[in-house]
Amino acid sequence: MKEEKNSKEKPLEEEVADLVPEEEEENPALLLKKLRSKLKTCEAERKEYLDNLQRSRADYINATKRSNLEKEEAALEGVGNILRDIFEVIESLETAMASDAFQKLPEDWKHGMEAVKSKVESLLRSNEVERIHPEIGVLFNPEEQVAVGSVETKDSELDQTVTQVLRDGFRRKGRILRPASVKIFNF
Q1: Which of 10, 139, 148, 163 is deepest in the core (most CB within 10 A)?
Q2: In the chain, how many H helices and how many E strands?
């Protein structure tokens, strides 16, 4: 194979002869000027190719980062959807356990329901889920709460403060999965 490759390649003298016409061989200043011009052209092309390569690499890195971020977001959204369903389960348990009917249940049933509630709460904690339960009288925070009703007040200091928590919210890793539902005072 090397012989074929070598037979196709020109010796250096022939390549130089192809580049330099006879009249320029006799005028070295003209030859030098043309070679410098050719060198500048080659350097400009090299710079352009290098810039394109670097831009392509940066685009690839950015696309990879964007793809990984989108995958992570999709995974978080999937987990968030499952956790939202679990919130409904724990709230149903809490509602049932707060009822008069729960108090009438045999003790072993009560303990069973309390164990299930404890297990669900443990599952939420192990998934870094925090409950959002605003205190009454704190200023309404639209990032963590949604106002589903309001109560008129004549006290301007109470304006936009929480008057009642209707449903707790939940957050995971700083991301709100469900805002707390509250009623607020309006002045």
Answers
A1: 163
A2: 6, 6
